[in-house]
Write a structure and sequence with these properties.
By secondary structure, this protein is of the alpha/beta class. Helix content is about 25%, strand content about 15%. Helix 1 crosses helix 4 and helix 3 packs across helix 4. Belongs to the universal ribosomal protein uL13 family. Part of the 50S ribosomal subunit. One of its GO terms (molecular function) is structural constituent of ribosome.
Length: about 150
């Protein structure tokens, strides 16, 4: 009889990946990043454990959306005070805080519990091409989020 083996937390090797978001589609990029953060790309995937890897996303200010989403997609936040709702379009948020767009997209694709919050801390997003994680020796990961290979 075979038994299911649960990996120990010490035996997991967590890699670092760097992904360039230039001209990548937002939703497709976020989906792939969420899979890597959860560890679904590994044979040791366990739903209740953090078996995923660290992901660094660079050039977050150059992420693309299709159609009219740049003017119609809205991001809402609330201060907690009466009348404190702030609404911002994709374009304005991309000019102001471009990394928040990718963070919100990926966070929405992670579990809504303590594990999801822990996984989210392994995502590092930077608006430009530079990041401070060279010491971790991240691997370059190329994702093709453009359907039919356009561009």
């Amino acid at each position: 009889m075979t038994k299911t083996i649960t990996p120990s937390s010490q035996g997991l090797d967590q890699k670092w990946y760097v992904i360039d978001a230039t001209d990548q589609r937002l939703g497709r990029l976020a989906c792939e990043v969420a899979k890597i953060l959860r560890g679904k790309n590994k044979p040791t995937y366990t739903p209740h454990m953090d078996t995923g890897d660290f992901v660094i996303i660079i050039n977050a200010d150059k992420v693309a959306v299709t159609g009219r989403k740049s003017t119609q997609k809205l991001y809402r936040r609330h201060s907690g005070r009466p009348g404190g709702m702030k609404i911002e379009t994709f374009e304005k948020l991309q000019q102001r805080i471009p990394e928040r767009i990718i963070e919100k997209a990926v966070k929405g694709m992670l579990p809504k519990n303590a594990l999801g919050r822990q996984l989210f801390t392994k995502l590092k997003v930077y608006p430009g091409p530079n990041h401070p994680h060279q010491a971790q020796k991240p691997e370059e990961l190329t994702l093709n989020t453009i359907p039919n290979g356009d561009k």
